[in-house]
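User:
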Amino acid sequence: MDTKYWGPSGWSLLHLITIAESNPSPQYKKNLECFFSTLSYVLPCKYCRASLSEYVTEHPLEKALESDKPYALARWLWTIHNCVNAKLRSQKLHVEDDPPFVDVKKRYIERFEAGCTRTKFEGWEFLFSIVENHPYSKQSLSGIPIPGAPDLTDATDLEKNRWNVLPAADRQKYVEKFWRCLPSILPYSEWKTIWEDCQVDWSSRSSSLKTLWQIRCKMETELELLNKTTYHSLCYELKKHRSGCAKSKRAKTCRKNRHAK
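Assistant: Predicted structure:
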């Protein structure tokens, strides 16, 4: 999936989640670990999964969660975001200068304090792109490994994930965990309640799409969200932003060719 489509949406949701609690409780830290430990496996772009696998090795999530400093997890995510920006710059892609952490914190605290009704839900493009790139979807199953992999005979899941050779059944376990853990770390109780009240089935692309659409409709209605859409428009957008990177050997990022139709 084209990173220009789902990337901004994903960063907005993730930053909001990490800002909502300056000093998470031990139980909330467990919930955060449950969720964030899956990100490397669920991103809807094999090159993004590869990069994040490297970044979380260099900047361990566990270290941020063990810290007693306020906003330690938010600072960790800011660091990861800066790593992504640095890679994009190395690929000669235009990226704005990295904002200071204090500015990021201020921006998302203000967003958090704005509440969750009659506003936008950050994350739809990100979440639906994850659904579209379901491990058992056609585009995922037709994906090929990233060239240059070392011997992976005794590799960990993260190492296999880095080279896009993790079997679909193994990646699906992380996808199921991602969706299971997400409601517990959503920043508003209203969001959590709606998610937890809905029947879910993340076993396939079609069932996941149906599940997430059901959740979205319920949130749009009950919270009077501003970023509404129709099912037809959603499906059109998802199809429009497929990048085809899963089958690519030479690409460096999942950005759709601007000349592609």
